[in-house]
Amino acid sequence: MKSLLFCLLLAAPMVAHGQGPFLKDRYKFPIGASLNPRLLAENEAYHKVATSEFTSVTAENHMKMMLVHPEANRFDFSRGDEIVEFAQSTQKRVHGHTLVWHNQVPKWMNEFSGDTQAWENMLKNHIQTVAKHYKGQVAGWDVVNESFLDDGTLRPSIWSKNIPDYIAKSFQWAHEADPNAILFYNDYGQDGKPKKMQAILNLVKDLQARNIPIHGLGLQMHININAKNEEILSVINQSKATGLAIHFSELDIAVNPKNDSTFVYDETAIKAQQEKFELVFKSYQNLPKHQQYGITFWNVSDRDSWLRGYFKRPKEYPLLFDDTYTRKPIYSNLLN
Ligand code: G3I
Fold first, then answer.
1. 19 lines ligand 1 (CB under 6 A)
2. Which residues of the chain are under the pLDDT cut of 70?
3. DSSP 161-209
4. Is 104 a pocket residue for ligand 1 (Cβ < 6 Å)?
5. Probe ligand 1: pick from 34, 46, 57, 60, max atoms within 8 Å of CB?
6. pTM
């Protein structure tokens, strides 16, 4: 009897790491996660959950300018390729993130000097070298990431300063390099920021009027339990009305947005988070099928979240898997 109990205890983690029912089977659209290649290689539990739970993957960092293009004449695709190899060997789709951003730009690009033509050549070369490298391996790209401020104006950056009309040009260059890729404009925090949302909708209309290929909108969905439902729904409805593919591209739901050191992840916080996840999934499910590119979580477990690492918020629990890579109760809610 004792040995049976021991065997059962040993078997218990298997339930946490890879047995169904799965969200990826419950929903008809891809369920993804952004991944870190170091964790994939070094952390067995991370690898198992990433393998069994998701049908789409995004590189959390390793396809960004700073990492793939560290020097003017040198590209480094090694870590991004690891993510692609993992995805291919486990039959997952890859979503490319991101070709143009104001953040995580290598030093040499920040220090670049030249006339408009030189800047255009430099950005075009970056976009097309990366897009060609991953051609046929990624389904889509976040071509341009986070170009608008909350007030709807164009974000000041090396791109807006040096390349007139850089967003349109970037989409055009990406399309030339990989004509089959689904091309997204990706941004965060549109809920409660009508001017930012309007700027994105205007961009879509403008690109379409000029026959510049844009196929999708990435709504990052870094939200928290205090986000207003009607504001989230309004952003989703306005995005739906464009007719473009919609990707909830970086989903996480923060429970302790003010980083309160005395915070306890108690029943109240869990319930609030549960309701928000349900709203997000239900509203995504209600989109027309042809607009459902998928929902991607921003990494796998709470311990891997950028909110803990990058933002240094140790008492944050924004994802579906806990620190031991066990499914949280919210997972079952989303199954039902
Ligand atoms: O890998 C280095 C490590 O070698 C070094 O010792 C350490 C010291 O700072 O830094 C490590 O790199 C960090 C990297 O994450 C990997 O963990 C960078 O400093 C850190 O800046 C970087 O943060 C990333 C952040 O983008 C940068 O803005 C986060 O992981 C990543 O989750 C986050 O992702 C963004 C999306 O791309 C766009 N939308 C918002 C989202 C969250 O900010």
1. no
2. 1-17
3. HHSTTHHHHHHHHHHHH-TTSEEEEEES--TT-HHHHHHHHHHHHHHHH
4. yes
5. 60
6. 0.94
